[in-house]
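Continuing the batch. This is chain 6 of the set; chains 1 through 5 are on the previous pages. Same settings as before, nothing changed between runs. Recording input and output for traceability.
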Amino acid sequence: MSNFINNRIERTIGMDLNGDGYLGGQ
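Output for chain 6:
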């Protein structure tokens, strides 16, 4: 899964999926 898509999903569901410490990436 690309980081861009993952970050979008994180924002949508409100969870940090990849453990990068930022909701929706940074």
